[in-house]
């Protein structure tokens, strides 16, 4: 392990070091090194989202490598762009780092950011590095709508079917395994680094004309409630139709936990959950339906065949 | 003072509270509340820059109000967009806040961000709030080039004249006054809140066809050296032609400091320093010239009529 700290390199040398590790793309018209980057926005609109990750709250350096943190930080923002139905083009990175941070860690972070971006053809376009006692990573992701309407949370209509791309609950199960000391369990990887199915999210937007979409960061049920409230509808999910990763079931047995709690309420998986018109792509396996609000009813998401989990799904290692 | 802390409101309620204070613009096609914002990018390219501000390093809550911090955080990013020759359209805001932070402070920050953005017709398009022991603000600013070439640091040519919009050294003088206990001196305001001359920067780009431009954040001489290195030229400044705020001279007498040190090396003023072709707008008062590098010479910025300040200009209250 190289223990040269970030203070041994000046700010400008450190930035040059990081930039040398980053990739390039045809969307990056002017990359790092000037007052600002210039990124292609061929649609004439740009999709933009920002997220912060704070050490001790969103990640732990003893639980995740720098590379994992980079992958996760990029993924959570790229997934937000895809959940709008947009193709990610670039991210910008703010890093607040303690003076004692090893250069190896910064290298790993940059590599993780670069590799996650490469999955969708995006690139690190710029950033800022400052000193702080608390290691904090701020990511902004940009994307291009390619002529499509943005897929908001507010477009779900009564009669729409609900579909999901991904396996909700894996990150929460992985975190529970970590906390219980099962550091080598394969599912722990799902906490360290989510695997958003970016291509599936884009297909839901572009081919299946999703009426609403979100990526699961607060948990399947909570995120469906975001759609329900924004769309003023009710959403009924069939628990029996949810995709279940067999590893989650095994983890539940290991820890004596009902895995359904993770699936229904675990966050940070960045699965794409969408509503689609009833006649859109009948091959898509549905997990539920959108229904109208009756008189006096409130917008909500619930299960038609199970009680709402009442405990255990609280993901305390988050904001 | 309202002492209700941010923990008393949930994350979603807090976001609603902040969003209610923000402005709107025709560039904001989809504002806060979804997975991402959608912002107009009529040029087909988007300019993007990001910066972090950490409490204790970039601001102090006992020295600056929340409103000042919001103005300053927005200004430093909006100035970067203008320094590229682009019209700012929107900012995104990441806030990492300790649980004890007062709601009043968050309100003031939001108001400051909104009001600084309003100076250039930009708007707060989205953001993220997380908890952290260390108050940290991450801003990303976006802008539109309106069909122009980006004004980079690398376009300065031998024979170009150097021009400046703004009064360099005011923020450094204000900080020195604060540190010396002169908390009520009018120049202290220049540290708390920079006043970038956005319109002048845009005129330098659009009408005067600036060949290179930067906003002063590291200090006039250091930022001119960024241009010199990127353009592979030498830059000679005439100290006698620099704009001098009379208040800086008075502050220098008060503190027994040569004010030239602040003017030449003080950061955080976000003045726009540009190079323009020799025949561009002869009414622009020049402060110096761009010259070619001779054999064996290195790119540098220096004064033709003064020694380079050797001390005192170091701005230690920065990253």
Give the SSE map.
Two copies of one chain form a homodimer.
Chain A: H1 11-19, E1 28-30, E2 37-40, E3 45-54, H2 66-83, E4 87-97, H3 103-118, E5 123-131, E6 136-144, E7 161-165, H4 170-179, H5 188-192, H6 198-206, E8 212-215, H7 220-231, E9 234-237, H8 246-255, H9 259-265, E10 272-276, E11 288-291, E12 300-303
Parallel strand pairs in A: 4-5, 9-12
Antiparallel strand pairs in A: 1-2, 3-6, 4-6, 7-10, 7-11, 8-10, 9-11
Short account of what is shown:
2 copies of one chain form a homodimer. Chain A has helices at residues 11-19, 66-83, 103-118, 170-179, 188-192, 198-206, 220-231, 246-255, 259-265; strands at 28-30, 37-40, 45-54, 87-97, 123-131, 136-144, 161-165, 212-215, 234-237, 272-276, 288-291, 300-303. In chain A, a hairpin with a 6-residue loop joins strand 1 and strand 2.
Question: Can you put this structure into words, describing what you see?
Answer:
Two copies of one chain form a homodimer. The first copy, chain A, has 319 residues and is an alpha+beta fold. Helices cover 30% and strands 23% of the residues of chain A. In chain A, strands 8-10-7-11-9-12 form a six-stranded mixed β-sheet, with helices on both faces. In chain A, strand 1 and strand 2 form a beta hairpin. In chain A, helix 2 packs parallel to helix 3 and helix 4 packs parallel to helix 8. Chain A is globular. In chain A, 55% of the residues are buried. Strand 3 of chain A pairs antiparallel with strand 2 of chain B, so a sheet runs across the interface.
């Amino acid at each position: 392990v190289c223990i040269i700290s970030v203070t041994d390199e000046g700010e400008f040398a450190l930035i040059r070091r990081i930039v040398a590790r980053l990739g390039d793309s045809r969307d990056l018209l002017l990359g790092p090194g000037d007052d600002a980057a210039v990124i292609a926005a061929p649609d004439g609109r740009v999709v933009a989202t920002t997220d912060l990750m704070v050490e001790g709250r969103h990640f732990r350096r003893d639980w995740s490598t720098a590379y994992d943190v980079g992958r996760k930080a990029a993924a959570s923002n790229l997934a937000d762009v895809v959940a709008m139905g947009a193709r990610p083009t670039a991210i910008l990175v703010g890093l607040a780092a303690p003076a004692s941070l090893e250069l190896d860690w910064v290298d790993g972070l940059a590599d993780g950011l670069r590799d996650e971006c490469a999955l969708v053809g995006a690139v690190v376009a710029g950033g800022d590095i400052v000193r702080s006692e608390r290691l904090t990573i701020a990511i902004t992701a940009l994307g291009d709508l390619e002529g499509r309407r943005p897929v908001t949370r507010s477009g779900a209509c009564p009669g729409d079917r609900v579909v999901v791309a991904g396996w909700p609950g894996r990150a929460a199960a992985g975190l529970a395994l970590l906390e219980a000391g099962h550091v080598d369990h394969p599912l722990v990887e799902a906490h360290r680094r989510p695997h958003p199915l970016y291509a599936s999210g884009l297909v839901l937007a572009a081919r299946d004309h999703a009426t609403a979409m979100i990526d699961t960061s607060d948990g399947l049920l909570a995120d469906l409630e975001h759609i329900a409230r924004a769309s003023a509808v009710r959403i009924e999910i069939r628990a029996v139709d949810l995709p279940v990763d067999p590893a989650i079931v095994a983890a539940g047995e290991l820890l004596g936990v009902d895995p359904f709690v993770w699936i229904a309420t675990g966050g940070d998986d960045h699965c794409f959950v969408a509503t689609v018109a009833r006649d859109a792509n009948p091959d898509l396996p549905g997990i539920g339906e959108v229904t109208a609000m009756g008189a006096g009813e409130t917008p909500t998401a619930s299960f038609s065949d199970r009680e709402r989990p009442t405990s255990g799904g609280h993901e305390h290692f988050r904001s």
